[in-house]
Structure formats: structure tokens, C-alpha cells
Structure to design on (837 residues):
């Protein structure tokens, strides 16, 4: 028996070895102190994050192709547990959740993949990617040494690893995945978990290693990552980062290309110059693998946004915009940098490194391999340009920039000299229809009568305490009703002329009703906690019905113990009477009353009014008596898809807050009426020089953070499509319209010696608005000629070279534009603005 067993396990061992190495295409991934090695060769790896559920399978090939064209070697993604296992042991890997299809699309494009399994993701994703049923399991504690949690985490991690293995997607099996990640930024939050956190971390490492995936594991932001986990850096800059083991390379897992947006917030923007500076500094200081977070941000469809209050758009100011268009100049400026870095791969990964301090925050780093030297020269001074003399030539390194030089002589690239055009996006109204006037609407009220009038049987269960919302709803809906009956007899001391309802609220949005009548609504601003206090004038003797509708807008996704953040109406909830004669205040605490609970709204969650079946089956009222600014109202219209292939958006101007659906698919929550504050949009702050953070350069003060919502083409049919809006606060749908987004024009500013490429990205160049070679001033839209100007008319030259073409390229030189006089020491530039057809 024993022998038999041994034979069996020996055999198994052989089979395992065979199955790991059988493929002739297997890629060996290893690491040393310099780089990740692919089949024994050190590599420079440029990677970008694209989260598969934030776009559609139909968009993936194009996004990944553009990533490859942009000079990336790898695509990185998290795995989103709550999308895949919405109900315990019931899985969804279809459509946008088709992880395997996504990884195969990456493979088909010939790129590597980095799989951050987590399964905690953060990512501004609802509840950080954790399913809410997990939180509701008895005895569970998340992200710590807790058996219930660890069993579930292992179960899901194993499921993903097995799925990926079955498709041979790990590099060790010939697949694209070169690295995997367990946990995520735990180092940032670990201290409050104490020893249990440390034990959990060690367990994560062991559990990961036991998965036997044949490629290295990463742990980001984890300076004490146990071996063989590779600890990596996340941040705006990572050049000062050193890994915790001399035998692992310096890896940057999240280089934040921009920042996310939130309802009621401003729009953040990070300049191309500064992102390029951060990347060049990282490679200058020995980094060899970096990942852009995000390369394509995309859209938080449905109820997937985290938060609270993360917006539906997750554009992130990434190199590919929300719709998959190039975000120029960021995309092109980084592409040029990637090409230069790849051309230096051998020097950067095998070369001898020599650092020279040139004074005043200027350093030169040379990488010499065999006969070739490549150099980086950085100027970290935030205001003063540096001029250095190399080989008898003067070279200007602008403040806060890095130059990269071939042979340490010829400048190939400078992070502050942007030679890529700035594309100007145009919104074109739906050419298939005359919107918005052509859209005809029908409507229905959301039926809340039985909840606010206390009809019997409307609730699901009762409780004598105020319950936390997630624990009741399992997050199957944003909405939860808290309802109670209060008997006020004739002699109750509470009676007065000034009676009010007070709710100590931890919810995001509250709508309060007494005896069928609305008494007020309120939403959290700044802190996700507010005190509701509204006068009520319809309390009556006898039975009173109090109905409180609590709504969430994305569950918290970050912080120590973020999962324990309570949301809902935990009270106290009181009726307060103030006597006018003696100022006496009498309160009646309702917190321990019997409360009846009902999850969701009738139309939204039970009848699914947005679904294809209900949209046609149920009666909708026509436009004649359509209410405007009415709370809890449904609107419906049909539309033809805009012509062409450009991305489609729906402009929801006029609407308040709610959720939008196209052909039964949720395109996300909307919230136009929560406006950003008026302060802080100082464009001078957008100078690329100096440390960036997400508050440095913001736009859109006093406005709504998002009025346009992406409608992926694959959601649309050729003939008739349906848009359904659930409006919670009150809005006016008559301004709603569909549009396409395209390049309307472009500006460029290129230095002498460079070649400028101009493109309408699929459309024709129809005109040249401005062109000047010399020292033009101003910026896109307001360029002006300077004193120095080439002898030939720049506009005529560009018209000849470009108009009527999709793209054109022109050498920026005196040979083309003629000798320029009066230019002094200044380097000459070409400024141009083109118009697209
Ligand atoms: C996950 O747990 C279920 C039981 O709930 C079990 O049947 C299944 O085999 C487990 N999966 C893995 C990969 O461990
Ligand atoms: C930049 O250089 C100037 C001139 O040498 C110096 O006075 C200043 O302190 C430097 N500033 C920074 C931030 O390096
Ligand atoms: C370089 O700059 C220095 C100082 O401005 C100047 O004296 C010198 O002539 C310049 N050399 C060249 C080759 O332009
Ligand atoms: C939430 O989940 C529990 C079991 O975990 C279940 O009893 C309850 O009915 C669920 N509630 C809703 C609203 O889905
Ligand atoms: C209101 O709720 C908050 C958060 O749950 C709690 O900290 C606070 O003590 C409550 N206020 C009162 C008066 O109970
Ligand atoms: C610390 C932190 O905020 N972590 C985050 C890093 O960057 C993005 C922010 O967009 C998150 O998704 C990370 O998890």
C-alpha cells in the first residue's frame, strides 16, 4: 500500500513537471537585482493597466492594439471578485467579466500580461472588489488572520489560478502572464491589524507560492514582503524606491497617469511632461519595469463604482481616454519615450552605471554596455533651466525634466519638450436624428405609495434595532426602506406647534416621508455622515407612518478596516417637539421601535422597468403630461444609433441623480446636480514643474463632474434603441441627446530638428488655422506669431503638406520653413493648429 502510494506520487510528480514544461513555447520568467528575465534575458518592461469590466469585449482588441502601438510590452489588470462571484459559489465570467477572453486578446496581440489577483483590488471599485456576502458571513474578519476569510480568499484565488492554468495562460505554460500579484497595497494599512496582519501576510505568501504558477509573485507597497514575494512601488513618482531584497529588480506597479473623479468634485489633470518626467527618472535610477495606472481607465458601468461617490467615468486622464481614443499629447509623448527606452534595453539592463552630480539638482547617469553609452540628465530644479556643455555643444535641460542622450551626446528625448499634437475633441450631435427635439419621451412614476403609506405586507421583515444597510441588502440594490409606526395619543407630551424629525445618518442619501408626505431629502457632502433635521407639520393623533429611504452611491474601497465602514441609518432617530410657550423640548427616540425593512425600489429592483421585457409590456404615460423635476420618476425614449463608428455618448444635461439604461444594460449612475466647489481651478497651478498630486491641477470648478455617459457601440442595435432613466431627485429629460466624440482639430508645438506628425485620427485634415515657425507664443486656440519667423509662409507649406489627408508629417527645420532671423539664442519652434473635417 505504502509503496503503491509512493509510486503514485512519484508519477504525479513527473506528470506535474511534464505539464509545466511540455510546451515548446513555454517562457521562463525569473528575476535578478536588475530586471525581470524572460528566457534568461533581462528586459525593460513597459506595462499599462486596463481593467476588463471597464470596457467591452468588442473594445478590447482596439484598446490592446493601441497599447502595443503606444510602445507597451504588457497589460496589467486586477481581478474583480464581486463581479465574478456576486452570490456565493455562483459565478459570472461572461461579457465584460470574461477574464479569459481578455487575457487571450492580450496574448493574440503578442503582449505580456500581469495578473493582479488580489483578490482585494481597491481600484475605486465597489467595496474594493469584495463581494458583500463575504462581509455578511458569520465570524468573518476581512484581510486579516481569520480562517473564514482566508478560506474564501484561497477558494477564489485557486479558482482563478485553475481557470488560467486550464487555458495555459501562464508564461510557464506558453501563455502571456509573466507576473501575478497577491493582496494589494496591504503595507499601507497593515499596522492597525497588528500581529494578525503580519500572520495574514505570511499566509498570503505561502498560499500564493503553493499555487505553483511558474512565474514570480508580486506584493505592491509591501516593504516587508516575505520572500520570494517581490515588493514593488506605487505612486506619482518612484525613483527613490529601493526593493527589500538586493536580488529583485526595482518595479513600479502603479504610476498614476492622472486621477479618478468623484461626484461633486473637480476634474483632475496631470500633464504629459510630468508623467514622462516620472517615468524617465524611474528608469534613470535603475527601474526596469513600470506600469501605468491607468493606461485606459474606462467606465464604471452599472453599480460598480467604489467610493463613496466615485463617478461613472473612470477616464483617469489616461493615455487612452474613456472611449478608447488617443489622449494626445499624453499618448504620443509617452510612446516616444517608450521607443527610446526600448532602444536602450541592453545598456539599461546590463550596462555599467556611472552617476555624476553636475550641481544645482542636475545629475547625469550613464549606462555603458560594450561600446555603447546612453545617458540620462535630469534637472530637478523646479524653476531654473540648466545649460550644460557636452562635447563643445550647449544643451538646455528645462527645469523639472530629463533628457535622454544617445552616445551621451545627442538628445533623443526630453520629457518637457512635447512634440506630439494636442487633439481637440469635438462632440457631434446625432446625425441620424434632430436631437434633442426629435426624442419623444414617455414616463411612469416609481411607485412608493405602499412604502410611505404603510400598506401591510410591504416589508420583508422587522427588527427592534436599526440595522446596517449592507447587512440587510447584501448590496443587491442601492436602496433600503426603514419604516415604522408611531402612535401619538392625545396626551403625548411631544405635541407642539414645532415638531420635527431628526435622523443621525450614516447613509449617502436620505429621503424622509411622514404619513405619505415627503418631509425632505439630504445627501452627504464631504463626510459620509450627516444630521437630518426637518420640520414636520403632518403628525397626527393616532398612528403615524414614518418611512425613510436610504441610498448608497458606491461602497468604500480603501483604508484599514474599510469593509467595516457602516452605512445606513443606525440612529438615533427622533421626533422632537419644541413648545413655543416655554421653549421646552420634548423628544421621542424611535431607535428601538419596531422597524420594517424592504430592500430596493419596486420599479428598479422588482419590476426592472429598464429591462427589455418591462419596457414594452408595462404601460408608460405619454409626453403630454410629463412631469419635470419630479422625484422618483422613470423616463423612456427610443433613438436611432448615431451614424459612423465613433464612440457614442449620451448627454444627460438637465437630469438630477439616478441610473441610466440602454437596451436594458445599465450604463451607470448619473448625478449632474451635485456641483463642484468654486475654488482651486487656478490654471497657473497646471505648470508641469514641481511635485504633482491630484489637487494640483484641477478643472471644472462650479460645474458637474460628468454630464456625458459612454454608450458602447456594442450596446446598440442598428434600428431602434431604448434609453430608460430612473430619476431619484428630479430632472428634465428634454435636453438629453446622443452625440459622437471625434477629433475636431489638433494643435502642435514642435522644436527644430524634430518631425511633427499631425493627424485627424481617422478623419481628413480640412484646414490650417494657424502656423508659424520661429518663436510663436500663446497656446492651442490662441497662438500668435512672434518676432522671429521663417522666410517661407508656414501656413502655405502646411496646407500643401496636410490638407485633404488623414495625417501628414513635416520636418521642423529652416530647410523647410526658410531661414529665420531675430531669434537670438532661443530654440525655434513650429506652432500649428489644424481643423479636422
Ligand atoms: C470552494 O469551495 C467549494 C465549497 O463551498 C468547494 O466545492 C470548491 O471545491 C472550492 N474550490 C476550490 C478551488 O477550493
Ligand atoms: C533652483 O535653482 C536656483 C538657482 O540656482 C536656486 O536658487 C534654487 O534654490 C533652486 N531651487 C530648487 C527647488 O532646486
Ligand atoms: C555655450 O554657452 C556659453 C554660455 O552661454 C557660451 O559662451 C558659448 O558660446 C556657447 N557655446 C556654443 C557652442 O553655443
Ligand atoms: C442577504 O443574504 C442573506 C444570507 O446571507 C439572506 O438571508 C438575505 O435574504 C439576503 N438579503 C437580500 C435582500 O438579498
Ligand atoms: C451619530 O452617528 C455617528 C456615526 O455612527 C456616531 O459616531 C455618533 O455618536 C452618533 N450621534 C449620536 C448623537 O448618537
Ligand atoms: C493608496 C491608494 O490610494 N491606492 C490606490 C493606488 O492608486 C489607485 C488610485 O487610483 C487605486 O486604485 C489604488 O489601489
Amino acid at each position: 500500500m505504502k509503496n503503491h502510494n509512493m509510486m503514485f506520487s512519484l508519477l504525479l510528480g513527473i506528470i506535474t513537471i511534464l505539464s509545466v514544461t511540455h510546451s515548446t513555447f513555454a517562457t521562463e520568467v525569473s528575476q535578478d537585482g536588475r530586471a525581470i528575465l524572460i528566457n534568461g534575458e533581462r528586459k525593460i518592461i513597459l506595462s499599462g493597466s486596463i481593467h476588463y469590466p471597464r470596457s467591452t469585449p468588442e473594445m478590447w482588441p482596439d484598446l490592446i492594439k493601441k497599447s502595443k502601438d503606444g510602445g507597451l510590452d504588457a497589460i496589467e489588470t486586477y481581478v474583480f471578485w464581486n463581479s465574478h462571484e456576486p452570490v456565493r459559489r455562483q459565478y459570472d465570467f461572461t461579457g465584460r467579466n470574461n477574464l479569459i477572453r481578455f487575457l487571450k486578446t492580450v496574448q493574440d496581440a503578442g503582449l505580456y500580461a500581469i495578473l493582479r489577483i488580489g483578490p482585494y483590488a481597491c481600484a475605486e471599485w465597489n467595496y474594493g472588489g469584495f463581494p458583500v456576502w463575504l462581509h455578511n458571513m458569520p465570524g468573518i474578519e476581512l484581510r486579516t488572520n481569520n480562517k473564514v476569510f482566508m478560506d474564501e480568499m484561497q477558494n477564489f484565488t485557486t479558482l482563478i489560478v485553475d481557470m488560467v492554468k486550464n487555458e495555459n495562460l501562464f508564461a510557464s505554460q506558453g501563455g502571456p502572464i509573466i507576473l501575478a500579484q497577491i493582496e494589494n497595497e496591504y503595507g499601507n494599512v497593515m499596522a492597525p491589524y497588528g500581529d494578525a496582519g503580519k500572520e495574514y501576510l505570511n499566509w498570503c505568501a505561502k498560499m500564493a507560492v503553493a499555487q505553483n504558477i511558474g512565474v514570480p509573485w508580486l506584493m505592491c507597497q509591501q516593504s516587508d514582503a516575505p520572500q520570494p514575494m517581490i515588493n514593488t512601488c506605487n505612486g506619482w513618482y518612484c525613483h527613490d524606491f529601493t526593493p527589500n531584497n538586493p536580488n529583485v529588480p526595482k518595479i513600479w506597479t502603479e504610476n498614476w497617469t492622472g486621477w479618478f473623479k468623484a461626484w461633486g468634485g473637480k476634474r483632475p489633470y496631470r500633464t504629459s511632461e510630468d508623467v514622462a518626467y516620472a517615468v524617465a527618472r524611474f528608469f534613470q535610477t535603475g527601474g526596469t519595469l513600470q506600469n501605468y495606472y491607468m493606461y485606459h481607465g474606462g467606465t464604471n458601468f452599472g453599480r460598480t463604482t467604489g467610493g463613496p461617490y466615485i463617478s461613472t467615468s473612470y477616464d483617469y486622464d489616461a493615455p487612452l481616454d474613456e472611449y478608447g481614443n488617443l489622449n494626445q499629447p499624453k499618448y504620443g509623448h509617452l510612446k516616444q519615450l517608450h521607443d527610446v527606452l526600448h532602444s536602450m534595453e541592453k545598456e539599461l539592463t546590463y550596462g555599467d552605471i556611472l552617476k555624476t552630480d553636475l550641481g544645482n539638482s542636475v545629475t547625469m547617469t550613464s549606462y555603458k554596455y560594450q561600446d555603447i553609452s546612453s545617458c540620462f540628465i535630469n534637472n530637478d530644479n523646479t524653476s531654473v533651466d540648466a545649460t550644460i556643455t557636452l562635447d563643445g555643444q550647449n544643451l538646455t535641460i528645462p527645469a523639472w525634466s530629463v533628457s535622454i542622450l544617445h552616445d551621451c551626446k545627442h538628445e533623443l528625448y526630453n520629457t518637457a519638450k512635447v512634440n506630439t499634437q494636442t487633439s481637440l475633441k469635438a462632440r457631434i450631435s446625432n446625425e441620424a436624428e434632430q436631437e434633442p427635439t426629435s426624442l419623444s419621451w414617455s414616463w411612469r412614476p416609481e411607485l412608493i405609495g405602499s412604502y410611505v403609506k404603510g400598506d401591510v405586507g410591504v416589508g420583508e421583515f422587522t427588527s427592534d434595532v436599526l440595522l446596517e444597510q449592507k447587512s440587510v441588502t447584501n448590496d443587491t440594490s442601492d436602496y433600503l426602506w426603514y419604516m415604522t409606526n408611531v402612535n401619538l395619543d392625545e396626551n403625548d407630551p411631544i405635541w407642539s406647534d414645532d415638531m420635527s424629525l431628526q435622523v443621525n445618518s450614516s447613509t449617502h442619501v436620505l429621503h424622509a416621508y411622514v404619513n405619505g408626505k415627503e418631509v425632505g431629502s439630504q445627501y452627504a457632502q464631504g463626510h459620509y455622515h450627516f444630521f437630518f433635521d426637518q420640520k414636520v407639520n403632518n403628525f397626527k393623533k393616532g398612528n403615524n407612518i414614518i418611512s425613510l429611504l436610504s441610498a448608497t452611491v458606491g461602497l468604500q474601497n480603501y483604508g484599514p478596516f474599510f469593509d467595516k465602514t457602516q452605512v445606513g441609518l443606525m440612529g438615533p432617530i427622533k421626533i422632537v417637539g419644541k413648545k413655543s410657550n416655554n421653549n421646552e423640548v420634548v423628544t421621542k427616540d424611535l431607535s428601538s421601535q419596531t422597524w420594517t425593512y424592504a430592500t430596493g425600489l419596486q420599479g428598479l429592483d422588482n419590476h426592472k422597468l429598464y429591462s427589455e421585457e418591462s419596457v414594452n409590456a408595462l404601460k408608460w404615460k405619454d409626453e403630454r403630461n410629463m412631469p419635470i423635476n419630479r422625484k422618483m420618476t422613470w423616463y423612456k425614449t427610443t433613438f436611432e444609433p448615431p451614424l459612423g463608428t465613433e464612440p457614442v455618448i449620451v448627454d444627460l444635461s438637465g437630469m438630477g441623480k439616478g441610473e441610466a439604461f440602454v437596451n436594458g444594460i445599465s450604463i451607470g449612475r448619473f448625478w449632474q446636480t451635485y456641483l463642484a466647489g468654486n475654488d482651486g481651478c487656478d490654471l497657473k497651478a497646471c505648470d508641469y514643474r514641481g511635485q504633482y498630486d491630484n489637487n494640483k491641477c484641477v478643472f471644472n470648478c462650479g460645474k458637474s463632474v460628468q454630464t456625458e455617459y459612454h454608450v458602447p457601440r456594442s450596446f446598440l442595435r442598428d434600428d431602434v434603441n431604448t434609453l430608460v432613466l430612473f430619476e431619484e431627485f428630479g430632472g428634465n429629460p428634454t435636453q438629453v441627446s446622443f452625440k459622437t466624440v471625434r477629433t475636431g482639430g489638433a494643435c502642435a508645438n514642435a522644436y527644430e530638428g524634430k518631425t511633427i506628425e499631425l493627424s485627424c485620427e481617422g478623419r481628413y485634415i480640412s484646414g490650417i488655422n494657424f502656423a508659424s515657425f520661429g518663436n510663436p507664443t500663446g497656446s492651442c486656440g490662441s497662438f500668435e506669431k512672434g518676432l522671429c519667423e521663417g522666410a517661407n509662409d508656414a501656413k502655405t507649406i502646411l496646407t500643401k503638406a496636410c490638407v485633404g489627408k488623414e495625417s501628414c508629417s513635416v520636418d521642423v527645420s529652416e530647410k523647410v520653413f526658410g531661414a529665420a532671423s531675430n531669434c537670438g539664442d532661443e530654440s525655434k519652434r513650429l506652432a500649428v493648429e489644424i481643423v479636422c473635417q
